[in-house]
Structure formats: C-alpha cells, structure tokens
Design goal:
The structure holds 2 protein chains of 2 kinds. By secondary structure, chain A is of the alpha/beta class. Helix content of chain A is 49%, strand content 9%. Chain A contains 15 helices and 7 strands. Chain A has a 4-stranded parallel β-sheet, with helices on both faces. In chain A, strand 4, helix 8 and strand 5 form a beta-alpha-beta unit. In chain A, helix 2 (21-33) crosses helix 13 (261-269), helix 4 (57-73) crosses helix 5 (84-98) and helix 7 (124-139) runs parallel beside helix 8 (175-182). The longest helix of chain B is centred in the middle third of the chain and has 17 residues, at 93-109. Helices cover 47% and strands 0% of the residues of chain B. In chain B, helix 6 runs antiparallel to helix 7. Chain B is built from 9 helices and no strands. Chain B is an all-alpha fold. Classes of the chains: A alpha/beta, B mainly alpha. At the A-B interface, helix 3, helix 4, helix 6 and helix 9 of A face helix 4, helix 5, helix 6, helix 7 and helix 8 of B.
C-alpha cells in the first residue's frame, strides 16, 4: 500500500463535485479512516464522458492526456478515479497512449503538453480490495451491517475496458461483494451485476433506459435485496432518481435504495451523515429498519 | 491530425455474439454484427444513416466479448464521427444534440455545469419542460448546483484548438 498512498492523487470528475458529491465525501471519509492520504490533482478537466469519445476520438485522447500530464507534472504515480465513466476514459486513454509512442508524441506536440507516460489509473474497487485489502477494511468496522442483503451492481464501465487487463472478472465481478462481506452484510448472487443501465440514454431515450433500469431493479428486488451498492455516479443517478416512476410503470413492488459502496463502508465505519450524505438518495436508505427486520 | 481507428472489422466471422448481448439491440434498425459486416465489406457508408450508431449506449459488452477482439464499441464511435463529418441526417437527433451540448458545456470552464447542461439540452431539442419535474427534486436533495464550477485556467483557449463545434 505504501507505494501507492505516498504518490496517489484523486481525480474527482465533474459529477463528484455536483450531483454525486456524496460519492466524493464518503470516499474521503473512508480513506481518512483507512489512513490513506489522497490529495486532489490540481487543475483537472472534464474527462469528456459521455460525449467527447462519442463524436471525436482525438478530443477524447487530448482531454485525458491533459489530466495524465497534470498528474505526472505534480509528481503523482497513480490517479484514483471513483467515477466509473472517468475511470474508463482515463484508463482507456492511458492504455492507448502508453502503447503508441508515435501517437503520444504527435498529441503532445499538438496540445502543447509533455506527458512521458506511465501514470497508473486506479479504480476505487481495485484499490480498496487489492491495495488496502479487505482485512484492513474489516479491521475498521465498528458497526457491522449484520443481516443487510446487498445486491452489488458494477455496471458497464468499471470492468469493461477493451484489452486492458481487468482487476476483476469482467462478467461476474466479485470485488465489491468481498467488501460488502467484511462489512458484515450479505452480498447476493444475482444476474444483473454488469448489465447496462442505459447511461446517457436516460436523458436522450428515456423509455429505453427505463426498460433497462427496470430489469436490473426487478432481479435485485426478486432476490430480496435490502439495497443496491454501486460504484458509478451515472448508475446511481439512473437507478435512483426516477425509481418511483419506473417501479410503477414496470410493476416492481418494493423500493430499493441505491447507495455508493463508499457510503456503505462509511456506515460500517461509523462515519457521520455530514460526510456520507445518504439523504441525497431519492429512495431512502433506512438501515435501522432493515437490520431490525 | 487524424487518429486512425485501430480496429479491423474484417476479422469478424459473423457469430453475432455482439448482437445477442447488446442491451439495446431491440431498438436498433441494423444489429451490431450487421454493421460490422457492412464495414468489413467496405460498405460502411450504408451504416452511417442507421440508428444503431446513435442507440449504442457505449456499454462495451460487445467489445469485451468479441471472440476476434474487435472493439465494436469503438467502431460505433468511429462511424458516428464519420456520419457527423459527412453531414448525414441523424435518426436520433436527441443523442447528437446531447453530445454537442455536453462538449460545448465543459469547453467553457473545463468542467461541466450540470444545471446549464440540462437546460441548454432542453432548448436544443425544443422541449423546455423535458425532465422538468426532476430538477427541483434534485435541487432539494442538494444534488443540483446553481453556480457553475470553478474555471480551469487557460482551458478554454487550449480546447479551442481541438474542437470547433
């Protein structure tokens, strides 16, 4: 852990500073308890997701090159990227640029940057399970989530970067489940761990996204989940903010709270609401009621 | 400067694994394996008007499952860029409006301002009250920030060289 924590910076991304600020503050609380220093990289820019890569591959590479160059210039070897979309864009670009010196050279020249390469882009699930380790997490649990049944939802972008070796199984990942287990809760075996929630179709083609969201919710509810844990702001937004309407349309009986994995860890660590911001979720997450059942 | 697409769709042997796993295949006029077939036959132009490239959610399921290691999702990105470049009419105008608006939004300050992004998207698609019920709820949950993010110094000028949209 020493290698990383000494030179790792946080890349928060746009949504973690606005609609999903609870992901950023809960992560900060968890890292503090775990004694992992993680300053924010200065002057970072938007990674371009959901749109730069969708219209212009070069723009996507340039935006992320700038962020990687900043990390390098500021002396960081690793960037911790909680947002799954930012992670996908940054890690994908880093992989492409690290493996194509000619492309990196041309892009550096054109954008006026001087990135040499090699900054490691780290996923939060990867960091928590492989660097911190579940034993270290378990050691800080003061309020075990006994009896809580959790559907761990990984979505698309945490595990699916083409050709880049994944930190977990792409089709049936278990890193989040491993964390949930040491919190004292019960991770559920279910079928929609990595199915797509529709991403930006939530805004542009609502009926399509609603159908995808409904399938994910339906399976988790059928398995009697008390809540869903996620590691992606877009997933949280899509599964939570219009859940009442989607449940009504598709006949899903029970509401399902959707929380960030760092919020769940934070609850088990006894971190307060000012950092966890559980009240930001549309579907209320009432732990007292769940574990009392 | 051109950035060449590194994919080789000619490797495709039409197993259709991409289409069977695609979460939005139901809503596509051409299925992903049909698009790849067209590209491998040198008839990619025929795919440029299809809604497939616009309905693709970018979930990368096809890309990581392809037995011939074709990053199909990136092929979709490439075709989308070509369709825009050639001025081909977009069959799902909301998606193009969303992307253009999104890029314009973060190009101003270097970071996205979600409230303005949603408002200007509604104006672009000429539905000012689209999702209007969600805004106040997000605001009450303290998830919608009225003020824009802090400016990233020099970003706007830097970005101008890269995006003319």
């Amino acid at each position: 852990m020493e290698r990383l924590t000494s030179r790792m910076a946080l890349f928060p991304g746009c949504t973690l500073e606005s609609s999903s600020i609870s992901f950023e503050t809960s992560l900060a609380g968890v890292l503090r308890v775990l004694d992992v220093p993680c300053p924010t990289v200065q002057d970072w820019n938007c990674c371009g997701a959901s749109s730069a890569h969708a219209l212009d591959h070069k723009l996507h590479l340039a935006l992320n090159l700038r962020n990687l160059a900043l990390a390098e210039e500021q002396g960081y070897s690793d960037l911790l990227v909680p947002c799954a979309a930012c992670y996908h864009r940054l890690a994908g670009a880093a992989f492409e640029l690290d493996n194509d010196a000619e492309l990196l050279g041309r892009l550096n020249t054109e954008t006026g940057l001087d990135y040499r390469g090699g900054v490691a882009v780290r996923n939060v699930l990867d960091f928590l399970t492989r660097d911190v380790g579940v034993d270290a997490i378990a050691a800080h649990v003061t309020e075990p989530l006994t009896g809580l049944k959790v559907a761990c939802y990984y979505g698309c972008l945490n595990t699916r970067i083409p050709r880049l070796e994944c930190f977990d199984d792409r089709e049936y990942p278990t890193s989040m489940d491993d964390i949930v287990r040491v919190l004292g809760a019960e991770p559920l075996d279910w079928s929609y761990k990595t199915e797509c929630c529709g991403a930006s179709l939530f805004i542009t083609a609502e009926s399509v996204s609603a159908r995808l969201v409904s399938r994910i919710l339906k399976d988790a509810v059928a398995r009697d989940a008390d809540c869903m844990a996620v590691a992606c702001p877009m997933c949280q937004n899509n599964l939570d903010t219009k859940q009442a309407e989607i449940r009504a349309e598709f006949g899903i009986a029970a509401p399902l709270p959707v929380v960030f994995i760092t919020q769940l860890i934070g609850v088990a660590f006894g971190i307060g609401e000012s950092e966890l911001k559980l009240a930001h979720s549309f579907v209320p997450f009432d732990l007292a009621q769940k574990s009392g059942e | 400067m051109e950035v060449a697409l590194k994919e080789n769709p000619s490797l495709c042997y039409q197993c259709a694994k991409c289409s069977t796993g695609c979460p939005v295949a139901d809503d596509m006029d051409l299925l992903p394996h049909q698009v790849i077939h067209l590209v491998s036959l040198g008839m990619g132009d025929r795919a440029l008007g299809a809604n497939t490239i616009w309905m693709c959610a970018g979930c990368y399921t096809c890309a990581v499952r392809c037995p011939n290691d074709i990053d199909i999702t990136s092929v979709m990105d490439d075709l989308r860029s070509k369709a825009v470049e050639q001025g081909i009419e977009c069959p799902v105008p909301e998606v193009l409006a969303f992307h253009r608006n999104f890029i314009k939004n973060f190009s101003r300050r270097g970071r996205m301002h979600e409230l303005r992004m949603m408002g200007e998207y509604n104006l672009r698609i000429r539905k000012p009250f689209h999702n209007a019920a969600l805004g106040p709820k997000m605001f009450l949950k303290r998830r919608l920030h009225l003020f824009p993010p802090r400016k990233v110094r020099g970003f706007k000028r830097w970005m101008r060289k890269l995006w003319k949209g």
